[in-house]
Design goal:
mainly alpha; 5% strand
Length: 166
Amino acid sequence: MKILIPFLLICSLCWTTGVYADENAALNQAMRAFNNRARSDADKNLILRAVSQQTKVPEKALETQMRTSHLNYAELLTAESIADGSGKSVASIVALKAQGQNWTAISKNLKIDPNSIAARLSNAEKSVRLAQAKAGQKTAPSKVYMPGGTDIRRSSTGGPQPKGGQ
């Protein structure tokens, strides 16, 4: 019994550390995926619109926050989400980040599930991806040369279509 209790305590600590690492990795991956969508000025506008839709904060206010806090798009959505869920100001959340805490630690300390923030980032990234695909559909399909001389066209999804676009 004397050995069992410390063993269970150590197992519990290891499990908690593993869960924290998984949450941190998931949040960081969602943040990278979201920021990677910003390839052009048009993309940046779509991303800012997605942040605004997720947070219900006007785009102009978000632009001001980005300038003053030097947050990227994913950090802005994360800080807004934590502030909204915790009742704290975005400035206080940014101050915690400036003190060296990572986003997962900040969210957990304020009783916000980091997976919910990752889901919010993922939803915003999906809406940007769909808007980018929709914008890409307005351009003419590109011709692709295939070995054997067959001429095909690419659909907006990148898959082959028969010549003539059927």
